[in-house]
């Protein structure tokens, strides 16, 4: 194993430890009695941080596939909003008003989950097909579909939140699962494993890295770049749909106005976790660490009584540092 690549791969882990240590020091300085630090390190707070990682974490895994292939998807925030609306619409039996009986059947919930994931998969198919078929930069395509998907969500919902029966998949993000952590977190862990296996142990994974490293070289090697890109965006949509189900579970309703700007947090999780916007690098575990770092920063800001903008400025600074490190890595690779 070469030392430098190993060190670069360890950077997300080092960053996680650094953020935790700095957070502990800052909290201890604010409250010398140690009470706030004890709360920060408590199981209840750790559990909350893990659950708050779920939505961004799952969606960021799909974004990881896209970014490794040198693409980007700015529509994922709108897709999550659309996902909550589709879920609510289907679980209500094709209506924006809840049924008279305040209870949803297991079949209705199952169909709603499948419809939600399928709808976002179609969104990914549309993004991938347009950008590949017409050779349009994904940034432009997904910037447009970001508005389109948000508009579709508002159209279906009539511009308002869609209420649903209280038992409709709202247990994914509670504290009733194993170890007092909702099933949503375990779905995130399962998604990490699936993504890691896909990237490291399958032909598709090798294709994704190859396309991101050099699209022209991938073509010369016989890879159907256009078809692979479309499939990658479909997978991103599937992950986003699952994240949308988790978002619905957290809210308890379908809301077409949520997740505005969430795509930036999702992209930030990938970048902080070592994903390169130039393509060709990234990992499932790194992305999870990136999402976890952002959740820890949110918890720290809450403990410190800091305003939201402090967290935003901090995350923005970390993203710039991560991109700078990636740029340095590419320059050294080019020089060698």
From TrEMBL:
Annotated TM spans: 7-29, 49-68, 80-98, 104-129, 136-157, 177-199, 230-251, 257-277, 284-306
Membrane-protein topology: Multi-pass membrane protein
GO MF, one example: transmembrane transporter activity
Superkingdom assignment: Bacteria
Keyword terms: Cell membrane, Membrane, Transmembrane, Transmembrane helix
Subcellular localization: Cell membrane
Protein name in the entry: Ribose/xylose/arabinose/galactoside ABC-type transport system permease subunit
């Amino acid at each position: 194993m070469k030392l430098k690549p190993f060190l670069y791969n360890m950077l997300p882990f080092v960053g996680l430890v650094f953020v935790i240590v700095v957070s502990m020091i800052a909290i201890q300085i604010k409250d010398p009695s140690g009470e706030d630090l004890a709360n920060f390190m408590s199981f209840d707070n750790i559990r909350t941080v893990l659950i708050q990682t779920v939505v961004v974490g799952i969606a960021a895994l799909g974004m990881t596939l896209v970014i490794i292939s040198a693409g980007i998807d700015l529509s994922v925030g709108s897709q999550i909003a659309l996902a909550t609306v589709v879920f609510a619409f289907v679980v209500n039996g094709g209506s924006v008003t809840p049924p008279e009986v305040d209870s949803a059947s297991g079949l209705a919930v199952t169909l709603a989950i499948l419809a939600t994931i399928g709808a976002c998969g179609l969104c990914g198919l549309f993004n991938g097909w347009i950008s590949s078929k017409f050779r349009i930069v994904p940034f432009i395509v997904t910037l447009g579909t970001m508005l389109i998907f948000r508009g579709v969500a508002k159209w279906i919902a009539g511009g308002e939140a869609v209420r649903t029966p209280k038992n409709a998949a709202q247990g994914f993000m509670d504290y009733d699962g194993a170890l007092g952590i909702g099933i949503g977190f375990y779905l995130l862990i399962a998604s990490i494993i699936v993504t890691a296996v896909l990237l490291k142990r399958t032909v598709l994974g090798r294709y994704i890295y190859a396309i991101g490293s050099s699209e022209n070289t991938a073509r010369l090697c016989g890879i159907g770049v256009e078809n692979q890109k479309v499939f990658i965006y479909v997978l991103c949509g599937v992950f986003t749909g699952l994240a949308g189900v988790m978002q619905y579970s957290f809210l308890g309703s379908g809301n077409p106005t949520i997740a505005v700007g969430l795509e930036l947090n999702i992209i930030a999780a990938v970048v902080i976790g070592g994903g390169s916007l130039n393509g060709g690098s990234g990992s499932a575990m790194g992305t999870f660490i990136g999402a976890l770092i952002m959740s820890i920063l949110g918890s720290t800001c809450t403990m410190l009584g800091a305003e939201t903008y402090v967290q935003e400025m901090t995350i923005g600074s970390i993203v710039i540092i991560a991109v700078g490190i990636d740029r340095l890595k590419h320059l050294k690779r080019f020089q060698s």
